[in-house]
Every structure is written in structure tokens, then in C-alpha cells.
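Summary for the steering committee. One of the milestones for this cycle was to obtain a three-dimensional model of the protein with S-adenosyl-L-homocysteine bound, which we needed before selecting residues for the alanine scan. The sequence and ligand used are listed below.
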Amino acid sequence: MRQLLENLRARGFLRSERVYRAMERVPRELFVPEGLRAHAYEDRPLPIGYGQTISAPHMVAIMTEALDPPECGLALEVGAGSGYQAAVLAELVDRGGRGCGHVVSFEIVPQLAEYALGNLKRSGHSGSVSIVAGDGGSGSGAGREVFDRILVTAAAPRIPDPLLAELKRGGRLVIPLGSPEIQVLTIVEKTAEGKIFKIEDTPCIFVPMRGVYGFQALDN
Ligand code: SAH
């Protein structure tokens, strides 16, 4: 793990000490299928079943640095997958599991929602993360500006309106926007006045988002 993190730092993906420490505290091997444990500290995505993947560590570093989740903040993730990214976010918003911050993470494949929850229990992060089985593109259901940070870890054609509606003023949303084949990781900021600004960051490739705000309807 040390070698991987030093490599991510040298390549400029890990820029802050706090994100480095957060990734250091989450054993990625607990979030990959058993037969792939030997590859857990290689910088590449790995299959987790149901046609989905755990993101490559450099992508987790880029997304987490871009999101910059505040201590004691409330974060929403769309696409829990293995639960790994949610655990890294939990380390930042709820350091030491003291209960001051929380992560809510949606997963549309029910079996993966179970998988993520099991992994988070084993890694000791289940107290700071709530896994919800369902379509996170439609928001958490709060319908109000409640989240300090929102991270979408599946590719979307556009920013889902319900997510913008649930982002606090002064908050930030990170989402891969583009086609199902290629996207640009986009940082979206909502000002104190409620205005939206977009900054296009890194080219990336994510699995396509499903559900109402995804590329295709759920039934295919
Ligand atoms: N963040 C994950 C990797 C995400 S892969 C990790 O750390 O392992 C993208 C995940 O998004 C997949 O598991 C996929 O099933 C899920 N997904 C796709 N569309 C979704 C939606 N509308 N709502 C919730 N989850 C979704």
C-alpha cells in the first residue's frame, strides 16, 4: 500500500496530506473480490461483479482531492460499488468515527449494495456510511439543500437536477460527464447565492450511470 500511495503522490494525484492519510487508513484489499486480493495495491480498476468495477486508486485520489470533503460534513455518493470510495470519504468527514460527519451512498444493484455494506462492516466504516439500495441519480429524497459534497462515480450525460437541488450553497459536486465511452471529470460549485459554476477537470472512463438520469432505462 505504501508504495502505491507514494507513487500516486509522485504522479501528482495525491496532493494533500489529509487525502493521503485517508487512503492509508482504508485497506483496499477488503473491497475487492477474494481472488483479486493480490492485485489490490496495483493502480487499476478491478471487476467486482455485475459488470461493475472498483475505480483505480489514482481515480479515487483525483476525485477525493477534487471533492475536498470537509471534516464533519455530510456527503452523498451515487454508485457505492464496493464501498471503497465511501470509506475514503468517511475517513475525511468522520475522522475516527466520532459521529460528526456522515456519508450516504446509493447503489442501484441490490447485490452490490449488500456487498458494499459487508465490506464497510469489515473495514470498520459502517458507522459513518449509510448504504442505500436504489437510484441515487434521483437524489436522496431529502429534496432540500442538505449535502456539503456530492460525488457521482458513474458516467452521466448531464448533471441530474435532483442532485443540484440537494447540494448546499457553498457546496461542491464532482461528476464524470460525457458519453458512455468517455467523460470529463467535472467539478460543480454552488455559490452562496445559489449560482452554479462548472470546471472541467480530467478525462476519465466510468461505467455508465443507470436509472432515470442515466444513459438508458433500467430495464436493459
Ligand atoms: N465508487 C465505487 C465504484 C463505482 S462503479 C467503488 O468505490 O467501488 C459505479 C457504480 O455505480 C456501480 O456499482 C453501479 O451499479 C452504480 N450505479 C450506476 N447507476 C447508478 C444509479 N443511478 N444510482 C446508484 N448507483 C448507480
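Key point for the committee: Residues 110-123 form the longest helix (14 residues).
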